[in-house]
Amino acid sequence: MSELTRDAVETAIKNYIDPYLDSDLVAAKSVKDIQIDGGNVTIDIVLGFPAKGYADELSNKVAEVVKAADGIADVTVNVSSNIIAHAVQKGVQAVTGVKNIIAVASGKGGVGKSTTAVNLALALSAEGANVGMLDADIYGPSQPRMLGAQGAKPESPDGKRLKPVNSYHIQSMSIGYLVEEDTPMIWRGPMVTQALEQLLKETDWEDLDYLVIDLPPGTGDTQLTLAQKIPVSGAVIVTTPQDIALLDAVKGLKMFEKVEVPVLGVVENMSIHICSECGHEEHIFAEGGGQRMAENEHVDFLGGLPLDKAIRSDADSGKPTVVADPDGQIAKIYREIARRTSAKLAQQKKDFTTKFPNIVIQ
Question: Which of 139, 224, 327, 351 is the most buried (most CB within 10 A)?
């Protein structure tokens, strides 16, 4: 019997196509080490995205395809994650304590963008990442209530910088923490954009793998500030299936393309309604619109969420679905979306700016 080689093991691993990377793990450079001891093989896989809910499945699938190769008696597959910083727009400085910023946007209001953003953040955290949430909707901040932190006041030990509010292992900041909940923000555009910059850059974020930014709807001042002054690694577009929402969602997607921010994909909210009494399924807002949009614009379809009153009531009560019912079907969908989003981001260019020395000419 011929001696088992690393090439033979790699060839076997290539038979498994990872559903999040859309490639085999060797091509994705996720196989970091292969140890061979007679017929026993140990494989170390390091993913560029958090995958706590997927690690065991991946380990079993890889072990299964490798065991099918000749000369292998036993296979051990170790799966871990290493999340690094990825490239952002040219000329925009990184934010201290934050590796990657993911903007969650929509072309119009009422499509469930804020609910999607908070559940995405919580799902990324559940998958093993350190996550923060910045509520960029200055006029209508909703994240303090959704995170069950309304009434919380950020600490400022030095009177200049703010400590983020912690809730469900998420670090968050919002104008909603600094004003009363029923106080209207009657501000012009420049004041809004300045407030957004201050909330981002004057908060002491602590070692975040991802900062999720919940944007207001549209393509106005806040979005322009985000594109020009905030280092965004990628954007997620939230829409509902009907044509009117899709028209505006495409505008939001095109905006990010124009400012060279990668669009990680599209999330379709309110995809289908399932009657709680009889189980009848009905596409109230049309069918497959988000998927068609993703195909037409050549971006990934990250997933679809049902029209379910639990999603709304959980968020309103300050305990979003991912933490209210962590083992439920809807939480599983959000975690699937989180893995797809972060895996897509993991395939973007790396950020090497921190590797270069600062050159000062005197």
Answer: 351
pTM for the complete prediction? Answer: 0.91
With cut-offs at 50, 70 and 90, classify the pLDDT of residue 219. low
Strand bridging mode 165-167 / 263-268: unpaired
For 6-81, CATH number out of 3.30.230.10, 3.30.300.130, 3.40.640.10, 3.30.930.10 equals: 3.30.300.130
pLDDT at residue 188 tops 90: no
Backbone angles phi, psi at 269, to 5 degrees: -95, 155
Q: What is the 3 state secondary structure string of the chain?
A: CCCCCHHHHHHHHCCCEECCCCEECCCCCCEEEEEEECCEEEEEEEECCCCCCCHHHHHHHHHHHHHCCCCCCEEEEEEEECCCCECCCCCCCCCCCEEEEEEEECCCCCCCHHHHHHHHHHHHHHCCCCEEEEECCCCCCCHHHHCCCCCCCCCCCCCCCECCEEECCEEEEEHHHCCCCCCCCCCCHHHHHHHHHHHHHCECCCCEEEEEEECCCCCCHHHHHHHHHCCCCEEEEEECCCHHHHHHHHHHHHHHHHCCCCEEEEEECCCCEECCCCCCEECCCCCCHHHHHHHHCCCCEEEECCCCHHHHHHHHCCCCHHHHCCCCHHHHHHHHHHHHHHHHHHCCCECCHHHCCCCCCC
Going from N- to C-terminal start, the domains of the chain cover: 6-81, 98-346
Burial of 136 (C-beta count, 10 Å sphere; 0-12/13-18/19+): buried
Is residue 89 pLDDT above 80, yes or no? Answer: yes
Sequence-ordered list of residues with C-beta below 8 angstroms from that of 19, at least 6 positions apart, any chain: none
